[in-house]
Design a protein that fits this description.
- The complex is a heterodimer of chains A (about 325) and B (about 450).
- Chain A is an all-alpha fold and about 325 residues long.
- Chain A folds into 2 domains: about 120 residues, no CATH class; about 150 residues, no CATH class.
- In chain A, strands 1-2 form a two-stranded antiparallel ribbon.
- Chain A is globular and about 80 Å long.
- In chain B, strand 10, helix 5 and strand 11 form a beta-alpha-beta unit.
- Chain B folds into 2 domains: about 280 residues, NADH-ubiquinone oxidoreductase 51kDa subunit (Rossmann fold, 3-Layer(aba) Sandwich); about 70 residues, no CATH class.
- Chain B has a 6-stranded mixed beta sheet with strand order 1-14-13-17-15-16. In chain B, strands 2-8-7-4 form a 4-stranded antiparallel beta sheet, with no helix packed on it. A 4-stranded parallel beta sheet of chain B has the order 11-10-9-12, with helices on both faces.
- Chain B is about 30% helix and about 20% strand.
- By secondary structure, chain B is α/β, with parallel strands linked by helices.
- In chain B, helix 1 crosses helix 4 and helix 4 crosses helix 7.
- The chains are: A mainly alpha (about 325), B alpha/beta (about 450).
- At the A-B interface, helix 1 of A face strand 15, strand 16, helix 9, helix 10 and helix 13 of B.
């Protein structure tokens, strides 16, 4: 024989999926929400998104190249996803310098210090967001009013998010039914006509991306459905118990970051559990903690904290919650 | 609704390019090389010497112990030497080299075309014949069939399962056998039923073989107690435990055998071999091998004598394509890559797959992104990502508690990993060490 044969252990064929294709799939799934954001917030959305994506990729490159001195892996697309999600969690008038700082925290602190892709315990984009929220509370809570390209980036008219309006009103002793007149209708909320973080506003666009990710098998239904399910059950109970003190479940679902969190943040591969049973427990934990923070906590919104808290339990869940082994329970007949 | 097993599984491209190629007899080679170990268990002991003349069907090596098998000459001719040969596993083992002359068979073999359906023998006689004829599981595992037909006291078997799944991509040997020798396969199933003293047999065939499914179902109406079941296509449905689960919803416990849930599984190829052994007195010395690959000019299904060098099969399928990068004995998911074309065909070789150079390598391994795909595709409910890490770090005790020994090496995890991690490589390594550890512990 003249030519040498390859010899390797089985299997000898491989699936077509790669890390890069999966990350690209997530980016594609985020396009509708990005489009909605640009439609509502104009230039601000474009500037914040580009800044976040570029700086996340750049920081990953710089850290790998000069600090860790190891192979550059920016082409796997994970930094692009982190950048997009970080942008989606910021107001569209957020100062560029702070966007860069947030990206540094997300990539540098939350991801690369733990060893890069696959090793970080906490969702990098959310660590970036929460860092900003605590360090720059004013800039992080001045939400531009949706007005498309009508207003500039820096001088956008700002207002409170519907959740904040309701929360402040309830604290002030007002009835929910009266407060509902001060916020957009449910239908407007569904399309995204409200103040809020760039990517969280348009429920319709987020759901399109969700459908795409399910069909494309990028994620499974377990985490989003358990987050949203437990969230809806809890808010429904509260609403029924005191309808004048609690907003209805649908309002809760369509406002704030619950859909963005459930579909895109909680499902982050690296920081979510490894088997369906654990995924459902993890999802329910996120749903419940979110409601607790929204209704009883100091912040009007709590999805980011809920996800980060549940992230901390993931290693524990992976150790103690096991998939059902074949032949474990003997059930015959 | 078509049945299937519930947990895990993957859908590799089927590529059954030889599904419509009728079985052809391969011309006899000039020399055959017959290894003495073509089965799981103790190697057989060669009983011929250099210079002996042998006939096709003559025993040339006898089984050593209960879990072992007889080996027969597949040709008539003269033993030229007894020497070492590299087999499909890449290891060297003893083999009998026979120079072929003519094609004379042992007198007791019935070479007529007539199909004999009546089974006159007792269960004990059937089991004895399987042992004498060197019948082993032809699905790939090559477990000696007489062992599976001997039900130990205290265990009960109430149903026989015949495996016509052929879930490996590319392979069509069982498919063609069911189409062309359906009556013999069903008679073989009847013989196996009798040997196991069961009234019921189920044949499972995946729905990607509608012609075989329809043909066998039609024929089965003439056989008492045999029913045919279509299965939804999913790899690894042909695995024993998965097929049992799919067909009769029983779950073989971890570390146990199908007999523990009252069933025995035999492959359709084995059923055919049993038919020939019992009704025609013909020992197992030839089998159907699919020779396939997208670059081959005439891939096909060949009836091949054991001991034939694979180079002859490749020649019969149109010769080695220029772009060949890997040759696999078996299917692409569980087959073994061989390192030369002198490797002889053995009882367990169901296919020979030639993979083009550009598809024969592996993508570079990337960091695990913890996507959990390996966990969701594992048909045994294991956590491949974890087992790989444990094996990599040498944490074998933990790997044992995480059931690394349950792994059947189906390759679904490695197949599906987007980061191209060598999951099964490490699991296989760890599994071997854990099995060795457990054995040493039991000795103490």
């Amino acid at each position: 024989m003249s030519n040498l044969l390859n010899v390797s252990p089985s299997p000898h064929v491989y699936g077509k999926e790669t890390t890069r294709k999966l990350m690209l799939g997530v980016v594609l799934a985020l396009i509708p929400a990005l489009a909605a954001s640009i439609y509502f917030f104009g230039w601000g959305a474009i500037i914040v998104t580009i800044t976040a994506v570029l700086s996340c990729v750049l920081f990953e490159y710089l850290i790998q190249r000069f600090l860790l001195k190891k192979a550059i892996t920016i082409t796997d697309g994970s930094a692009v996803v982190t950048g997009l999600l970080l942008a989606f969690n910021l107001p569209s008038n957020f100062p560029v310098v702070l966007v860069v700082l947030g990206s540094l925290v997300a990539i540098g602190v939350a991801k690369m210090t733990f060893g890069g892709l696959g090793n970080n315990p906490f969702n990098p984009a959310l660590v970036g967001r929460v860092f900003m929220l605590i360090s720059f509370p004013v800039q992080m809570t001045s939400w531009p009013v949706p007005s498309g390209f009508g207003t500039g980036y820096a001088d956008a008219v700002t207002g409170a998010t519907p959740l904040a309006v309701i929360k402040a009103g309830i604290k002030g002793g007002e009835q929910v039914s009266a407060l509902m007149d001060q916020v957009p209708s449910h239908m407007q909320l569904f399309y995204g006509y409200m103040g809020g973080s760039m990517g969280e506003i348009a429920a319709a666009a987020l759901l399109i991306g969700f459908a795409y990710m399910l069909i494309r098998k990028i994620i499974t239904w377990h985490i989003p459905v358990s987050v949203i399910g437990s969230f809806l059950i809890f808010t429904t109970i509260l609403w029924h118990a005191a309808p004048e003190k609690n907003a209805d479940p649908l309002f809760h679902l369509l406002t704030g970051g619950i859909l963005l969190g459930a579909i895109y943040m909680a499902t982050d591969y690296v920081t979510s559990p490894m088997n369906p049973k654990a995924m459902i427990i993890y999802g329910c934990g996120i749903g419940i903690i979110t409601v607790v923070i929204r209704v009883f906590g100091a912040y009007p919104e709590g999805v980011s904290f809920a996800i980060l808290i549940m992230n901390a339990f993931v290693p524990l869940m992976n150790t103690y919650i096991k998939p059902k082994r074949f032949g474990e329970e003997v059930k015959n007949g | 609704m078509l049945k299937t097993f519930p947990t895990g599984g993957v859908h590799p491209p089927e590529n059954k390019i030889t599904a419509n190629a009728p079985i052809q007899s391969l011309p006899l080679p000039e020399q055959v090389i017959i290894p003495v170990s073509q089965h799981i268990g103790a190697p057989a002991t060669a009983i011929v010497n250099k210079g002996d003349t042998v006939k096709a069907g003559q025993t040339i090596a006898t089984s050593k112990g209960f879990v072992s098998s007889n080996i027969h000459s597949s040709v008539s001719g003269k033993v030229s030497k007894i020497d070492m040969v590299t087999d499909t596993t890449g290891y060297k083992q003893t083999a009998v080299f026979i120079d072929v002359s003519g094609d004379e068979w042992v007198d007791t073999i019935d070479r007529s075309e007539e199909i004999i359906q009546d089974v006159g023998l007792t269960p004990e006689e059937i089991t004895r014949k399987c042992l004498d004829a060197g019948i082993v599981g032809l699905g790939g595992a090559t477990f000696p069939s007489h062992v599976k037909l001997t039900v130990p006291s205290g265990k009960k078997c109430d149903v026989l399962i015949i495996n016509g799944v052929e879930c490996e991509p590319y392979l069509t040997a069982d498919h063609r056998l069911m189409l062309e020798r359906g009556e013999e396969v069903l008679t073989g199933a009847t013989i196996l039923m009798k040997a196991l003293r069961v009234e019921k047999a189920l044949i499972g065939i995946e729905s990607n073989k509608p012609d075989a499914l329809a043909h066998i179902a039609k024929l089965a109406s003439g056989f008492k107690g045999i029913t045919v079941h279509g299965l939804k296509v999913k790899y690894p449905q042909g695995a024993e435990k998965q097929l049992i689960k799919a067909l009769i919803k029983r779950e073989v416990p971890s570390g146990r055998l199908p007999l523990d849930v009252g069933t025995v599984v035999h492959n359709v190829g084995t059923a055919f071999a049993v038919y020939e052994a019992v009704q025609k007195n013909k020992p197992l010395f030839e089998r159907v091998v699919t020779v396939t690959g997208r670059s081959l000019s005439s891939p096909g299904n060949f009836l091949v004598r054991t001991g034939t060098p694979v180079s002859k099969l490749i020649a019969a399928a149109g010769g080695m394509p220029e772009d060949t990068g890997k040759i696999v004995a078996g299917g692409p998911m569980m087959g073994k890559a061989i390192n030369n074309t002198d490797v002889p065909v053995v009882k367990g070789m169901s296919g020979l797959l030639l993979i083009p150079l550009e598809e024969s390598g592996r993508a570079g391994s990337e960091p695990c992104i913890r996507c959990a795909r390996c966990v969701s595709v594992c048909p045994l409910g294991l956590e491949p990502y974890l087992l790989m890490t444990l094996a990599e770090l040498g944490l074998y005790e933990r790997a044992e508690t995480e059931k690394i020994t349950d792994c059947m090496e189906c390759g679904s995890c490695s197949y599906t990993c987007p980061a191209a991690r060598p999951l099964l490589d490490y699991i296989r390594l760890g599994k071997g060490i854990v099995i060795k550890m457990a054995r040493e512990r039991n000795l103490k």
